[in-house]
Amino acid sequence: MQPDPSNAIGVFDSGIGGLTVVRALMERLPFEHIHYFGDTARVPYGIKSVETIGHYTTQIAEFLLEKKVKLLIIACNTMAAVSSQVVRDLSPVPVLDVIEAGALNALAATKTKRIGIIGTPTTINSNAYARALHQIEPEARIFSQSCALLVPLVEEGWLDHPVTRMTAQEYLKPVLAEKIDTMVLGCTHYPLLKPLLQDVAGPGVALVDSAEAMAERTAALLTDRNLHTPSRDEADYHFWVTDVPLRFQTIGERFLGRSLNNVHVVKW
Questions:
Q1: Which of 174, 179, 181, 211 is nearest to 194 (CA)?
Q2: Which tens digits make up the pLDDT trace of 85-108?
Q3: N or C, which terminus of the chain has less Cβ within 10 Å?
Q4: What CATH number is given for 99-210 in this structure?
Q5: Residue closest to 142 by CA, chosen among 153, 120, 154, 127
Q6: Catalytic residue at 147?
Q7: Is 37 helix (H, G, I), strand (E, B) or coil?
């Protein structure tokens, strides 16, 4: 059954990082309504079992489907790595995930097929990016690096801080030594560090921003399925969270690049 084009897009994440995807969608598709769900009470997902992540992901997807969204976007790399098939199996509407979007953009950008992936330990250990890339291009050489400290540094607002630069240099050293020409920012927090990471990687390495990649894939899917909203009124944005930590507003507005209104708390 064809979803109603005037319905909202549903975007979800384990916490706040997916707001970089929302920001890219707002810029690329300014008339589309968006429902964003961030599981702020149960973040971080990176240290939880596959079963638990699957259970939480199902719960959130069902919540957004009840809101009659026309499309689901898994904005969290950890959720996408572990549970994207679970969501596809239960969803009557199309499902996009950041890993697939990032992999496609990386293959479009690379000339040497030597690709670096940086992400959280769970995303890197899941090998999901390498699998997605090899499925499309078996000859690609993938070099992955887990960067556990970058998320807390971004949430601290240290986007161009000597400590962040030094940390990035340490993490990227082994990946850059492999002569990669493309690097996937495999965590939704990392787009905020793009200028710093580009500086560290050097001009010869193309950075693939998973948030931008997702906005492009979404626009293409809406065109293919004839799901663009007919409305030219101001878009409606709603943010559903499971807890409102003290710093949520501050960090959220930094991620979004605008003020954060319509925040609703969901109690489970």
A1: 211
A2: 999 999 999 999 999 999 999 999
A3: N
A4: 3.40.50.1860
A5: 127
A6: no
A7: strand
Tell if the pTM clears 0.85, that is, is over it.
Answer: yes
On the question of pLDDT at 50 being above 90, the answer is: no
Q: Give which of 55, 54, 48 is closest to 83, Cα–Cα.
A: 54
- Measured over all CA atoms, what is the biggest interatomic distance in the chain, rounded to whole angstroms? 53
Residue 2 confidence (pLDDT) = 87
Residues 103-126, mean pLDDT to the nearest whole number: 94
Give the helix/strand (H/E) hosting 115.
strand 114-119
Pair 34, 22: CB distance under 8 Å? yes
Active-site position among 187, 193, 196, 222: 187
How confident is the model at residue 114, as a pLDDT?
A: 98
pLDDT at 245 over 80: no
Q: SS3 of 250, please?
A: helix
Domain parsing of the chain, residue ranges: 9-97+213-265, 99-210
Q: What crossing angle do the helices spanning 128-136 and 77-90 adopt, rounded to 10°?
A: 60
CB atoms within 10 A of CB 234: 9
Choosing from 73, 76, 96, 128, the catalytic residue is: 76
Residue 210 has a pLDDT of 87
DSSP code of 97?
E
CB 266 within 8 A of CB 241: yes
Are both 9-97+213-265 and 99-210 of the same fold?
yes
The amino acid at residue 54 is G
**9-97+213-265 classified as CATH 3.40.50.2000:** no
Tell whether the model's pLDDT for residue 266 goes beyond 80.
Answer: yes
The mean pLDDT of the chain is: 94
Residue-level pLDDT at 75? 96
